[in-house]
Amino acid sequence: MTNVCITGVSGYLGMRLVKELNKKEEIGSIVGLDIVPPSIEGEKIKFYKLDIRDPKMGKILADHSIDTVFHLAFVVKPIHDLKKMHDIDYNGTQNILNKARSAGTEHFIAISSTLAYGAHRDNPDEILEDHPLRGNKSYPYGFNKCLVDNLIQNFAAENPEMAVTTLRPCTVFGPNVNNYVSRMLFRPFTVGILGYNSKVQFLHEDDFVKSCLTAIEKKIPGAFNIVGDGTLTTEEISRITGTRIIPLPSWILYPLLEALWKLRFPGIEVNSGYLDYARYSFIASSLKAKEILGFYPAYSSLATLEETVRSKKNN
User: Fold this and answer.
1) Cα separation of 310 and 297, whole Å?
2) What separation in angstroms does the CA of 194 have from each of 123, 197, 233, 242?
3) Vertex 248, ends 202 and 236: CA angle to 5°?
4) Could you tell me which of 201, 244, 192, 245 has the C-alpha nearest to residue 226?
5) In Å, what is the CA distance from 255 to each residue of 79, 92, 96, 277, 301?
6) Strands 199-200 and 232-233
7) d(CA 110, CA 97)
8) Which of 2, 136, 167, 284 has the maximal Cβ count within 10 Å?
């Protein structure tokens, strides 16, 4: 029997993962950690209201003989308090890594992001897992993903006795998605950067859960890009979602968005640094995940977006 701990369990992806793990006979107890209770219950599930920076986490892991940790906790929606955001993301990850090591945890599965590679003009057509992590400092969420991912890779190198698997999914979509990216894409209109039509990848929420289940089953250390096959351009996404894009020159759009962000203008959920990720492609290769991890997505990027659109229209 495998005892599992999930940080950030109350997020929608955390709860999707719990539902699937709860069905598995080989899974013993499931310990969920979050600052808000999850909306799911089960005989296997034990919830602790806990900040991932809390030192009491070590005792919880030891008391429940946790074999595997899924680390999903992260400040997903950008906040204005950048110091707090960094403290939670970076120091919280460092805390759970150290406490898992002390508790004798055998397998650590970290959820990173392709955002950690950064959005840059000189990115290759497809980014491999050994490409430098260059998350844009101007966009705190992507930059923190980069810092935390590097922290995890360094920890893995220094602690070979623990299998550390890092999953780097692209943007996750699906019938239940509700994040700042989906909210921007499904408005009647949105703004775009004049002269740019970057490529984008999507991962279906079912495939995200599938990648987590594959990781715990295979227990293969290393970093893996988890992405849907194929890409879509910004203009293709606009046609499929029905959202009209209003192109603005970068010299207008960047300071405008930054000003609205600082003013906490309603509906503005990202700062101007996000625009780099809309401007430059950061397409990740799925070859390693397929060949080594054995993960093959059931949905392409196109199929993922189309199902998300159908779901939004039916609700």
Assistant:
1) 20
2) 20, 9, 14, 19
3) 30
4) 201
5) 18, 32, 38, 16, 31
6) antiparallel
7) 10
8) 284
Tallying the residues shown for the chain, one arrives at 315
Spatial CB neighbours of 240, under 8 Å, sequence gap ≥ 6: 232, 305, 306, 309
Burial of 201: CB neighbours in 10 Å, binned 0-12, 13-18, 19+:
buried
pLDDT band, residue 182 (cuts 50/70/90): confident
Treating both helix axes as pointing N-terminal to C-terminal, what angle do 92-102 and 140-158 enclose, rounded to 10 degrees? Answer: 20
Question: Is residue 49 within a helix (H) or strand (E), and if so which, with residue range?
Answer: strand 45-49
Torsion sign across C-alpha atoms 191, 229, 174, 110? negative
Q: Smallest Cα–Cα separation from 148: which of 120, 112, 184, 121?
A: 112
Look-up of token digits 């625009």: 275
According to DSSP, residue 163 is labeled: E
Q: Please report the pLDDT score of residue 315 as a whole number.
A: 65
**C-beta of residue 204 within 8 angstroms of C-beta of residue 174:** yes
The whole-number average pLDDT for the span 61-83 is 89
- Non-local (6+) Cβ contacts of 28 within 8 A are 1, 2, 3, 4, 44
Residue pair 210/309 in contact (Cβ under 8 Å)? The answer is: no
SS3 (DSSP) at 256: helix
The answer to whether the CB of 271 falls within 8 A of the CB of 139 is yes
Q: Which two tokens stand for residue 82?
A: 């950048």
| Span 269-284, average pLDDT | 93
Q: Model pTM?
A: 0.95
Average pLDDT of every residue of the chain: 93
Element (H, E) at 182: helix 180-185
* Residue 313 pLDDT: 72
How far is 153 from 188, CA to CA, in rounded Å? Answer: 41
Report which secondary-structure segment, H or E, holds 254.
Answer: helix 250-262
